[in-house]
Amino acid sequence: MSDKLTHLDHQGHAHMVDVSDKDVTKRTASAQAIVLMQPTTLKKVIEGGLPKGDVLATARIAGIQAAKKTSDLIPLCHPLMLTKVTVDINVISDCELEVLCTCSLSGKTGVEMEALTGASIAALTLYDMCKAVDKGIVIQNVSLLEKKGGKSGDWSKGNA
């Protein structure tokens, strides 16, 4: 792992990294967000009992759309032609949902930011869809779980 911040030039100014000389490789990244809510709220989410409609489907679509738009939101990210984005939302307790976003492509730069953005926006969409009945929802532990491919190789949160 490098100690060098790649988005800063020799004078410390922010810039977009030049990836033109990098090799095209298969790249994948997965990220998560944990959403905590009242058990009664989660029950309504699962049973489809909220007035805004299918909360989980809307959050999945929002996460996919966000991953595709990451370079519009984060100034120094390259616009990428993602070949796959998945957003899975899993119940992990009576008051917790885990949002998992995985992005992949064959390209010259990684997709970590796209996976993190997808997981974050899916979690925010869950909040938006449920806030009428539960304003105390907490989004936590937004983190990269793993990345594969590229010059720096594979990385996993479990092995960090």
Structure description:
The chain is elongated, with a radius of gyration of 17 Å. The longest helix has 19 residues. A 5-stranded antiparallel sheet has the order 2-3-1-4-5. Helix 2 runs antiparallel to helix 4. A hairpin with a 2-residue loop joins strand 2 and strand 3. 29% of the residues lie in helices and 29% in strands. The protein has 160 residues and is of the alpha+beta class. The chain has one domain: 2-Layer Sandwich (Alpha-Beta Plaits), CATH 3.30.70.640. It has 4 helices and 5 strands, in the order E-H-H-H-E-E-H-E-E. The mean pLDDT is 91.
Give the arrangement of secondary structure elements.
Blueprint lengths: L24 E12 L2 H9 L7 H14 L1 H4 L10 E10 L2 E12 L4 H19 L7 E11 L6 E2 L4
Antiparallel strand pairs: 1-3, 1-4, 2-3, 4-5
Helix pairs in contact: 2-4
Q: What labels describe this entry?
A:
single chain, 160 residues, alpha+beta, Alpha-Beta Plaits, 5-stranded antiparallel sheet, 4 helices
Radius of gyration: 17 Å
Shape: elongated
The N- to C-terminal Cα distance equals: 11 Å
Summed up, the domain count is 1
Low-confidence regions: none
The main pleated sheet reads as: 5 strands, antiparallel
- Please state the second-level CATH architecture: 2-Layer Sandwich
Strands of the largest sheet, in order across it?
Answer: 2-3-1-4-5
Give the amount of beta strand, in percent: 25-35%
CATH superfamily: Molybdopterin cofactor biosynthesis C (MoaC) domain
**Residue share in helix:** 25-40%
